[in-house]
Design a protein that fits this description.
The protein has 152 residues and is an all-alpha fold. The chain is built from 5 helices and no strands. The protein has a single domain, classed as Four Helix Bundle (Hemerythrin (Met), subunit A) (Up-down Bundle).
Length: 152
């Protein structure tokens, strides 16, 4: 299973990230490439406790849905709604300078994957409490999902 805990998987995801351009065309959804970069950045901020995101968890989300999302051998489908705080059309961070936004995302990937400067993981707004291993698996899958959205 791929995870940001594995150097090879992290290198692969960062290589793919560097292929995204401000004008990269999406295959699904509403986000532009710059919005997607900010969405991923906000999601890392959420996990690090730097951005508050409203709870949408329940028993089904914390058990079956979490297991399916993290461990079932399925790609995440298009069209899964996100929380408004990490939705760039609502309360999410607005894109600024694309190269700076990408650099900030890479910086947060490093913090998350190495633990440098990171405190304890907060509960995921949908999946609830997660171990470090689960957060790093989720982070890989979330980035993979959105990079596939832009064909990389």
């Amino acid at each position: 299973m791929k995870t940001l805990a594995q150097p090879r998987d992290k290198a692969e995801i960062l290589r793919r990230l560097r292929q995204v351009r401000p004008d990269s065309a999406r295959r699904w959804g509403r986000m532009s490439a710059p919005q997607m970069i900010c969405h991923l950045t906000d999601s890392f901020r959420m996990g690090l406790g730097l951005k508050r995101v409203s709870d949408a968890s329940g028993p089904m989300q914390r058990t079956l849905l979490k297991w399916l999302a993290l461990y079932a051998p399925l790609k995440w489908p298009p069209g899964v709604p996100t929380r408004p705080e990490v939705d760039q059309e609502h309360e999410g961070t607005r894109p600024a300078q694309f190269t700076d936004d990408v650099a900030e995302l890479v910086r947060l990937v490093e913090i998350v994957s190495t633990g440098t400067g990171r405190g304890a993981w907060i509960p995921h707004p949908i999946f609830g409490a997660m171990s470090e291993a689960a957060w790093l698996r989720w982070a890989y899958l979330h980035m993979d999902h959105h990079l596939r959205q832009f064909g990389v």
